[in-house]
Amino acid sequence: MEFFCHHRDRAGSQMLRRQLLESHWSYMDEFAKELVTRGPTFGSDGEKPTGSVHIVDLPDPAAARAFAFDEPCYRAGVYRDVMLRRWRNLLGRTIWQRGPEKTQPRASRKSVPSQIVQLIG
């Protein structure tokens, strides 16, 4: 079952978000095989992070809730809320299968937040 998970940042949480970035990445790496895509969301300036989107393939809604609410930034109070919805991958591929430049889940780590991952639906 695929799920869309949108964590939205709490106002004033940018410093805490930066402090937890490595913990966030490590947590996401635990789900590398289940992630369809992931990436930050940005404000209208295209630079200020406003949250994170993850599309993940998990066995059931309980596993999706655990994924969303056990995330280190959520647990530390970075996010003000989480939207979790069923999702269907109509493209039938993951971000890692998009092309040879995107084969490593952590390849774009150094370019965040200036690089925006586009979701194609």
Fold topology:
Elements: E1 2-9, H1 14-19, H2 21-29, E2 35-42, E3 49-57, H3 61-69, H4 72-76, E4 79-87
Antiparallel strand pairs: 1-3, 1-4, 2-3
Q: What would you note in describing this structure?
A:
- The chain has 121 residues and is an alpha+beta fold.
- It has a single domain, classed as 2-Layer Sandwich (Alpha-Beta Plaits).
- The protein contains four helices and four strands.
- It has a four-stranded antiparallel beta sheet.
- A hairpin with a 6-residue loop joins strand 2 and strand 3.
- The longest helix has 9 residues.
- The protein is globular, with a radius of gyration of 14 Å.
- The chain starts with a strand and ends in a 34-residue tail after the last strand.
The oligomeric status of these chains comes to single chain
Radius of gyration: 14 Å
- How much helix is in the residues? 10-25%
For the largest beta-sheet, the strand count, sense and barrel status come to: 4 strands, antiparallel
CATH class: Alpha Beta
Give the neighbour order of strands across the main sheet: 2-3-1-4
The fourth-level CATH homologous superfamily is: Dimeric alpha+beta barrel
The tally of helices reads 4
